[in-house]
Each structure stands twice: as C-alpha cells, then as structure tokens.
Amino acid sequence: MIENNIKFTKKHLIIGAVLLVIILAVIFSQKTSTNKTVVWEQSNTGLTTLSVNTVIADVNNQSILYAGTDTGIFKSIDKGVSWVAINNGLPNPLPEIRKIVHAPYAKAIFALGVGDVFESLDGGNNWILVGTGMADIALTPYSRENRYEKIHLADYGITKDPIIYSISTGIGFFAEPQQETRAYIKSFFESLYKDQKEINKNNREETNRLLGKAIEDDDITYDIVRAKKIDFLQERTLSNGEKARVINSESVVSLLTQNTWPTWLHTDRTIYSCWEDFMGCEKDDLLESILEKFGPHPLNSGAEVAYSQKGIPHIYANISLSSKLLVKTCLNRGGHWILENSLEDLGVSPTHIFVYSHNDNDIKTYDCYDNEEKEEFNIKERTALEDVVFVIGSKEYGQNLLLVSIDNAHTWTKFESNLPTSIESLFTIEDESVGGYVVFATTKDSGVFKTSIFLKDIK
User: Fold this and answer.
1) What pTM was computed for the model?
2) 363-410 pLDDT tens trace
3) 314-355 tens-digit pLDDT
4) Which residues lie closer than 8 Å to 137 by C-beta, 6 or more apart?
5) Rounded distance, CA 6 to CA 9, Å?
6) Number of separate domains in the chain
7) By C-alpha distance, which of 335, 267, 341, 307 is closest to 33?
8) Domain containing 303 — which CATH number?
9) How far is CA 402 from the centre of its chain?
10) Which of 37, 246, 385, 399 could form a disulfide with 358 if both were Cys (CB 3.0 to 4.6 A apart)?
11) What is the domain range of residue 280?
C-alpha cells in the first residue's frame, strides 16, 4: 500500500511539473505578445492602378492622403475611402512616384520619381519639376530646435560621392512657379554645389542669383541652402589591367531627418549621426560593434528604418535577413543602441515599420530615465502614449502579421491578419472616430489596404 502511494505521488509530481512549465510558458508569452485578429479591406475606389508605392497624410489634416503609384499621384480627402488622380504638370508618360513628403510650413508637397523631384504649392493640383538625378528626399520639420523647415535632396550623379542639398522650403526653388527645362534644373544644382563656398560666406547676391528670390530676413542667409559632399564612405579599388579606379563600397540608402538638430544618414553598413544638414557625420562605436556580427552590409535596401517626429525621437531599424530590431532611444542625451530580441522571440521577421508619435514637447520619454532618476522622480510606469510602433512581420509560409508596441518595442500586441505578401509600405493616422488608428498598407499588385486598430486593444 505504501509503495502504491509513493508511485501515485511521483506520477502526480510529474504531471504537476509539466503543467507548471506550460503555465509559465503562457505567462512568459503574454509578456511578449498578445494575440488578436484584424481584417484588412481594400481601399482602391478611384485608383487606376493597383501598383501603389507609398501613402502619406497632410500633416495638418489627416483626412487628406496622397498616394504615389507606378503611374502618377492620387489624392483622397476622406481617409482613403476614395481617390482622384492629381497629375497636372507631370510628364507623359506618367512617372513612377516612390516617395511623397508634405512640408506644412511652406504648404508644399514634394514627390520623388525615378530621379526626378516634383513640387506642388496648391495641394497637388499642379506640379513643377524641381530636381533631376535625385535618389532620395527628406524633410526636416519646423520646430523649436529647427528654425527653418528644410527639404533635403540626395544627388548621386555630380561626383563619385553623393551630394546632399538642404534648402529652406519657404523661399521656393525658382523665381516663378513655371515648368523649368531639365537642362536648367541640372545646371541649377551644379551651381549650388560649385558655388557652395560663396554661399557659406553669407554672400547674399550669389544666393539670390541661384535661388531667384529675394531674401527679406538678414539673419537667415546662411541657413537657406547647403550642399554637402558625403566623402567619408568606405572605398575599394577596382583594377582593370594597368588602370585602377576607386569606388565606394558603402552606399547611402536613405536620409533620416527629425525634429531635433541631429540628422541621420542610413547607409548599407551603418547609421551615421550628423550635425544639422548632414554636416560633420560620425559613426557610433556601439552601433558598429552590434552590426559587425551581421556581415558587411547589414542595413542594405532590405532593411527599413523608421523614426518618430515628435517629442524625444527614437529610431527603429530591422536588420537584413534577421528577426532582430535595432532601437535607439533618447536622442537628446546621446542615447544608446539596443538590439531588441522581442520580435525574434515571437518567431517574426519585421519587413516594414512605421512610427506614430504622440509627444509634441521636448519632454523625456520613459526610457530616457535611468534607474536612479526613476527612483528620484518616483517614475514607476509610462503615464502617456509616446511612440506607437507598427510593424508588418512575416512568419512561416510567408504569412504577414501586424504587430503594435507602445513601449519602444519591448512588448507587442500581435494581430493575425489576411494581408497579402507583396507589401510596399506601411502608414498610420490617428482617428478619434474609431478610438485608435487607421493603418494603411500599399502593395505592388493589389492597391491599398487599410484596417482599424483600437486603442483599447493595444493598451
């Protein structure tokens, strides 16, 4: 009898131990993610193409959206319910539009095609060509730290090294809003680069000649335009018989600009921290030590970098061929880079990232305080939404998931979904009518998809 009781006890101890492991696994997984379901619906009424590259919103009115497609630009005034073509002034055949930027201070919209940059000053009704041979555009918004809103254009054609032009949007590109010739525009930027030394000496006459518009404020001459050659990229030598030529073995992928004085240069090898207008760029030793484990080009075109535009900006980047997420916090204090494993723990590979920022003030976010400061100021938890990070991630069999984090990518709410695999871009607006966010995903073959995420589901 005693022997039987002992066997009975051992059996139940084993069962109890198994149950405990299962319970702990469930508890741990809940700390990392919460599973929910979301339904994506197509939003293509009025589109004449289903190959959509990007969607952005008017900064001052998020009901107004602009979509860049393989055949021109479309506009919606009802949060994507319907679209109309806005291509007056664009060349024929209509260009592929890869990126759109809204400059609210200048009431301007910039659209990047395959090298060409177009500007509209009337909400997209009319467009003029303002740049040729450009690989990327980005906007530094007007803020307390940035005295002037600026458009940045990356030109990879004038010299071996890329040239980045930084131009205050309020002055316009040309004296009159007319369709300039391609040759004139090319010479315009070549002159900006060649005459940069004179511009840097605050030469008002030379600046006015190049930009074609009088400057009224005596204090802003130095801040109107800069042309910076990116001449510090890694190089290698190609030999062909007796001839040898030096080429860059490191390539610029994108320009990153925020509402603070730093600007950021995303190359296929690293992310450089730069002074205003991409002056004085330098590497980060901590970031270098993290990235060296992932091969020579860990941040190539397969990597996507997203960043917050309000409050204390953060940067989020997925590393090519990896499930890890690179996060930089607290840029106002130098910040630090973190290799975040939370998505890898979920078995998800991030492919697209978008950050929706809530804080408009230069206040510290929760992760900007060290442990001593949290104790000193009695900071025990996040008191308000900061960044809301949206990620499209893939699991086995190419299934796409939507994941949302409100704590700088530490934990995630995971939404199973019916989203197709051919995603081009991700974009989000806040919508009080749904008590949360409307998320847009563009595709190369199925147009625009959208879904609603309720705030109560991600808190």
Assistant:
1) 0.84
2) 556 666 667 777 776 766 665 667 889 999 887 656 688 999 988 888
3) 889 998 878 888 888 765 445 678 888 999 888 888 989 999
4) 99, 101, 110, 112, 117, 131, 151, 152, 153, 154, 255
5) 5
6) 1
7) 341
8) 2.130.10.10
9) 17
10) 385
11) 33-458
